[in-house]
Specification:
With about 90 residues, this protein is mainly α. It has one domain (about 5-70): Tetrahydrodipicolinate-N-succinyltransferase, Chain A, domain 1, CATH 1.10.166. It is about 45% helix and about 10% strand. It has 3 helices and 2 strands, in the order ααββα. The chain is flat. The relative contact order is 0.17.
Length: about 90
């Protein structure tokens, strides 16, 4: 899938994001995973330097990352102390 088509697919999925959930499959899931793959392998970046302290945000890649949270179940990951000064975990659980 070429980059322009992938961008169109992500933008279309973003417009329909209220209907996207963990049961969503097909072209939407494929497009999101393809975009995440580009981020993983370094062939794309959510934000790219333009020079002279200017940055360009690739909104479609940002949307792909946000859509991935809708496609996958979220779970609390236990950890040690958070060093918030009170010795409690940072997850809000005591």
């Amino acid at each position: 899938m070429d980059r322009a088509q992938l961008e169109q697919d992500i933008d279309a999925a973003w417009d329909a994001r209220d209907s996207i959930n963990t049961d969503t499959g097909g072209a939407t899931r494929d497009a999101v995973y393809a975009a995440l793959g580009m981020l993983d392998d370094g062939s794309a970046r959510v934000a790219e330097p333009l020079g002279d302290h200017q940055w360009q945000v690739n909104q479609w890649l940002k949307k792909a990352v946000l859509l991935s949270f809708r496609l996958n179940d979220m779970a609390v990951i236990p950890s040690g102390t958070s060093y918030l000064g009170n010795g409690e975990s940072g997850g809000g659980e005591s």
